[in-house]
Amino acid sequence: MNKYNFIERLLHNLCFNFKFINKSLFELEKIFYNKSFDINKIQNQKHIFISGLPRSGTTSILNYIYSSNEYASLTYKNMPFLFSPNLTSKININKELKNKLRAHNDRIEYNISSPEAFDEVFLNSYNYEDLSYEFLNYISIILKFYGKKKYLSKNNNNYKRINFLKKIFPLSIFLIPFREPLQHANSLLNQHKNFIKIHNEDNFILKYMNFLGHYEFGKNHISWFKPKNYFNYSDINYWLEQWIKFYENILNIYYEDMKNIKILSYDKLCETEYLTLLNEYLDIDNNNFRSFTIVQKTVNENYNKKLYSKAFKLYKKLDNLTKC
Question: Looking at residue 257, what is its pLDDT?
Answer without folding.
Answer: 82
